[in-house]
């Protein structure tokens, strides 16, 4: 069960409202790199977690923290929209800079939300829950979580670089810090379970006889006019310790020509296909 | 530029067509764990790749291989739909088992595609390209790719476990093998760039002064009635080697109560809000 | 069956074309507050209406009127796009104001529709039919309709406030008026059926023994650091006349800790979860 | 900021797991009538609330309760999936009843989530955040909330009617009760602000001179072959107390024939259109 | 402006209700081959039509007819759902055939719509308006319309083939007939404008100097291991009468290797990319 | 199976980078008129092709070419984003023209992709695979392909008209040329199969007794106040040679009034509907 306390997790201050930055901040709320995504992803992973109870608690606790991040960002968006014009006649709308409400800003902040945050990204596209990755496999989920936090910290860094508002920079430096930790937190779960080598290949419960292992350790170069790129992926021991990496240059197809033959009568095809 | 050769990458055989399994296989084509996703993800990452050219080649080469996986799965779906009923009157439709065309199978295989594959998942939901993660940050992208291949191999293993068709099992054992390699391939890129520690926190180009580092290394326990779960994430050196992990039990909010005050006249609010 | 007459329901005039306002008007066509939504919502409600035939007629008649609103708005968008630049070289594109075609305007009005209306909102996001709420319960549907018309009139008021075009203001004053009526029309249906008290709780056909009525009339305060807000919702008779409102401060969970135990072999989990 | 306690808000018990019922329950999680929708809707309304602080607290407190409803439903889904087959060969898969995993159940519970809940509806379609209605107008939002809770209680009643599992019936009777209250809670906010008449038309801040009030109080009958349906909506005082209802039979269009003339050169039209 | 008459365009009769067929019929309402699509596509094309007024009238008139098709299909769906079980305990739900409500049928017909039609396809996926193709180019639109009616008639034929209900077969034979006409209607518009040759290439207003015409009339064979398929497309005069068809076997790339160089500082990349 | 060669199909040059044009070009990548659509559409049609093998080869070969078009456009987008500002403080961001990054440009090129292409359209809306039309009927598919290439060439012409960059104009003249050919290529398939008349009505395999042919050749005028528009569609022989065109002025409904009667107990309706 959830509870709420009335203060924000961290102070949110905007020195000079900027409706364009309100639009950019939306990416951190409703973008695929954003906070709705991680809050809901960890929540659904927690609800489906099997095995070590500590992982379930980690997931639920962090989901709960991410809800607080949505809350701070929602407030940051509203503060950046303070004073945005609601009429073409307003002085502010004539100012070529603040005019920005209709150039580079989200018109739906004016039309649809009454100058507050929405669950959409920086293009105004609503977040959709197909981005909640929760497989029931703890290692796959941890990798998905690291990926989410990595793109989240890339985004927060880009927002930090963009703005010159001191309040926003302070707030973003907090989000950057938490994304640093959460990247490491999920990687640390893998460490805690025995380390990367033990967790590979994911799922490590697939019996080796279900796998055509002769195809498991080579890089396939499908480039016709270039040598296979060489690197750690093409030589040395594999990361699961089971084999050695190699590569295949200019591969030949091994399968058949896929032909389906004629269409069946009654299947809606043209007569010429029957 | 791309080219095509007429044979499949690996043989695809179906011993006993099963329209229900055709539906399940769709997840591997048009699901978020599927092959359209990885093909397009690696393709867009390649088109935006900056820095080491070998990574660009790796991405484009593997994108190209994944297109061949879509092709094999598309054929596998069509083969599983051979003989599926197109009329309620057909003997097959009366058979309580094959009747399955309308129970557990995708009715649009009958209605929309003429008994062949579609770019949809196992619920018939079309794939959408918001799932193509390509950030321009090579480490973030590699993590996203590992996550995609991990969920892909989880899916392929579940499909393998479900079916008892020998042709399909053989084909899936090949996909499982390639997913094994591709997980390792993307992890090996991180190794090749100096290893995990060097790549963290992602992006490692964010100057430390942009980060409120006092918030970067602790687990925040938002659980009211439980101790913080302890593990590798709450103690020992951080994975980037910069600090040590710790945890905060029962955190206090540090920010303000977020209040927005009254609505502006002309903003479409109720009079009571002005 | 439907019919069409060639004139618009109400005159639509644009004194000074404005491609930015064309973009804003799209919200009234393809937004969730817009006319496609209400036209289709009333149409599907009408097709599923059971009980009093007058309600079915009301729904179908109003669906038909809303189609005429789409038609007027579509014309208003096209008129606002008259003279928008189709080339960067055009004088109009160099003018920092009309330049707006690429700042605050919808580039797809240029690229995709040939300077006419599209079934998208003010962000260019296409309307999707998941927003057609039609439950088969007449009271639930009426509430959904009031909500739709309320947000519709909020939107029309914001559009009216924004523009200084006299033609557009006249047209919008008509839409505002019809939204006034339609709000009341759907509320009047509830009156006609015996009033709000009789219709609650929706659905009023659910037998009281299907309901844990000890949980039906209190406000649950999940705020840790604030008293429950007091008001009409926390005291006095309930609006269905069956009980009295109260509130619960600082609620305790009543349920169990939800644990799922170990994963099943063959379910694609990591070995550590089995 | 949010917090979590480890127990569920109300006990969740499943006497006989049923993968089909797991699929049906998904509608209450990820459907438009479901709990993600109300949790997020109240959360975003709270973040944008202006005016009376009590309303903001009501919204945030109830958003927090709805998160706990998602949590209970997520557990209910997982419990209903206990023992669902993961292989065609399992005894359970051969049983014509439990076989249901592939007929009437969600194959992605098997393939994608590892037998746990997903943020999708009963068709497996992911929830998308365009359904979060938050206009910044308190009366419009309250109507949207009543509508959401009305459809939510209709859904919970239908789920109650469907199942014969005593545990599930007990759990659903709790959800039905809370939906009863939440319907009334939002209606009570309107009472608290002065009653329905005072809040109409929404937004009540739109000056009457922005409205073509001669069109604000009649029902327009667009039915060619039927008399206008008569009722509370066509006679008597209007619900805002400003006028009287009437109706118009067989309306004539008042506007012009909308013609756009020729296409512009360079606009991508056919020569015949120029 | 639109009007409605109370009777259906054509009689709709269901002899034996079948909830599975209700699900299949949904494809003709809310599928990409369905009636919402053509109604709205012709409506938006009409609103943007420039040039010959007769085409505008054709489009609007046919849009209006298609609305009547939605209405008939909506009734057909509801009739097929008559008597579908609303409770697991009902006799009908125990019958292994009618049980179908949860296998091959749409559970949301039960849960969400109260046993009536929804604006979704046969997988329960809502129609979205991105499928409304209206380019402002009359020839492009006519081709899109022919394509829509072709897939519509394929679908209606498949539905006809599936069902053995005489009422439904009669109704579908009417839809098949109208689709026959509408295919020809749109092709006849091209004839009316001077025939196919005159309309090509679409748009025929593009000046020939905007086109690298040396690339306009050959088939490019990208198949590595097969000869170019020969046919009308590889020899003989081109269909616009301007040139002759040919083909290129084994094409060489003509462009450069696309490289982007290093990432910019401050762009969120890894240090290794700078 | 697919292969890749490292050079682009045609040279791509940008003389003066323009982030706004990068946004416009996205329509040609991820728009419904774009290259992902045709690449995937031809690919899925090829995988489901039945009958003449040459058609399958045509489809697969052209799908492969279209992948190369995505690749060129992706490079064109990245080149147009060279030098776009990543910080508000940059000189370029202060320049009222380049400032355009936040007005008329895609903020996610900055925030999400690291200044490279994304699989989205010019509004930033991701492409979704529901636009892949592949019916299994070769004539329906060819019409859909002609429509796709027609809208594609309209789009390329509009992009050509917009830009004044010589490199981009040269590149677009190549795309325009290939779209010219592909329109004709798919029409030539119909010629090859015996010509348009033979292919109609699509599907031509539907037996005439499945069709209410008395409704197959008339235009239905639903316009109340206008004569039916006259043209090739209302007189002369039908295009399939089976009949003659005519028209119906002011049609009468032939069907019944659709009424559903009362709701069932237990179906979630209001008592008043039972």
UniProtKB/TrEMBL annotation, chains A, B, C, D, E, F:
Gene3D superfamilies tied to this protein: 1.20.1260.10
Residue ranges with Polar residues bias: 241-257
Pfam families per UniProt: Mn_catalase (PF05067)
SUPFAM superfamilies, sorted: Ferritin-like
Superkingdom of the organism of origin: Bacteria
Family to which the UniProt record says this protein belongs: Belongs to the manganese catalase family.
Name assigned to this protein: Catalase
Organism annotation: Kushneria pakistanensis
């Amino acid at each position: 069960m959830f509870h709420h306390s009335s203060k924000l997790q961290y102070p949110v201050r905007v020195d000079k409202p900027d409706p364009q930055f309100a639009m950019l901040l939306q990416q951190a709320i409703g973008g695929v790199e954003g906070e709705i995504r991680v809050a809901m992803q960890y929540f659904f992973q927690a609800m489906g977690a099997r095995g070590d109870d500590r992982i379930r608690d980690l997931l639920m606790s962090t989901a709960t923290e991410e809800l607080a991040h949505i809350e701070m960002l929602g407030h940051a968006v509203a503060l950046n929209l303070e004073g945005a014009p609601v009429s073409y006649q307003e002085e502010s709308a004539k100012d070529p800079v603040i005019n920005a409400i209709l150039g580079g800003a989200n018109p739906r902040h004016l039309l649809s939300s009454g100058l507050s945050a929405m669950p959409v990204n920086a293009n105004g596209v609503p977040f959709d829950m197909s981005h909640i990755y929760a497989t029931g496999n703890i290692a796959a989920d941890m990798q998905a979580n690291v990926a989410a936090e990595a793109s989240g910290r890339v985004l927060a860094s880009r927002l930090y670089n963009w703005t010159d508002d001191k309040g926003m920079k302070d707030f973003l430096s907090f989000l950057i810090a938490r994304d640093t930790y959460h990247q490491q937190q999920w990687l640390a779960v893998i460490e805690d379970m025995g380390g990367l080598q033990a967790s590979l290949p994911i799922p490590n419960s697939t019996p080796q006889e279900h796998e055509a292992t002769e195809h498991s350790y080579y890089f396939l170069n499908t480039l016709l006019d270039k040598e296979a790129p060489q690197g750690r992926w093409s030589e040395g021991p594999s990361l699961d310790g089971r084999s050695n990496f190699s590569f295949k240059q200019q591969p030949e197809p091994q399968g058949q020509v896929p032909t389906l033959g004629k269409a069946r009568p009654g299947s809606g095809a043209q007569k010429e296909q029957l």
